[in-house]
């Protein structure tokens, strides 16, 4: 989705707003619509093509409230609009569990995905990032940065999850096909065929890894899942597969999009990139701004567990509520100049990782790998230029870029020092 760089000049007529259509995210932008809804219709009803009604919340306060309140808003039915009629994995995998089931999987897993462990691996991650970048940017020739960045999440969490390096090149494409099966970049036939192929490949991979860990435990998430106490029992085979799949999908489908949107923002705003190069201490703040700016997860869906008031209106039990994270991260009541990409923005209470019990468990890993990437870029690249058409992902869920041809200017060649 194209990211609006100025405050929308005029409201969008409500009857022209469509937050479901994935094509609108590939060919246009939704920020003007979100801006209008925050001002005019903070709770807004729409139907999916199949006729299922969902209510949208777009303000920071309402999005936060829906995601925080896991007693009234359930994740077990499904968390994305694509499964508005219910996810077949509901209640069996970490992202589709309510309490106490969710905590029984999340808490042991957090010890493996913890910030401390990730930070201890920072130089290992740096080695992987340097290998991914290679000489692509130093050559001065155009490179498709979006395709290059598909490997980035593996540098951060591949070994932590337990995915062998030999499988890293294939896994991201399967994962992206799983969330955007209608996108031409990842389609392998019809949407149903693409989903079937992606799920088969990923499940086959994890089935083999689970069998290996049953024989020999390792210091990775798969081994943790095998041994965790799930309310007095072990996860069964299908639950193990689903949770491995969920952990991988959460990291793989989002981190590359933040990296691509960040480089595109820097290409469009040379002064912002120059500010980070001249003051590398800005890297952590710049990464938080990239996360806010990109908001790689457009929305998260919940289902009401009881009659509940949302944005001043009452909803009955069983209603679908879609929390638009991308909109919340542009809320003028929270962020000064929200349509400005400011690498020095602070504070920056963005919701890119969600909030509450379901806050992204891989957030610390993403922050580290993105920071390492930016450190490597500012050390070697004087700037970026877009060298062709930028193509966005056909998805209402992931705010992605599938093609980002850029030419990097070499800091060494130009004699530019920090």
TrEMBL record:
InterPro entries: Cyt_P450, Cyt_P450_B, Cyt_P450_CS, Cyt_P450_sf. Pfam families: p450. The keyword Kinase does not apply. GO terms for biological process: cholesterol catabolic process. The keyword Kinase does not apply. It comes from the Bacteria. GO terms for molecular function: cholest-4-en-3-one 26-monooxygenase activity; heme binding; iron ion binding; steroid hydroxylase activity. Keywords: Heme, Iron, Metal-binding, Monooxygenase, Oxidoreductase. Belongs to the cytochrome P450 family. This is Cytochrome P450. It comes from Actinophytocola algeriensis.
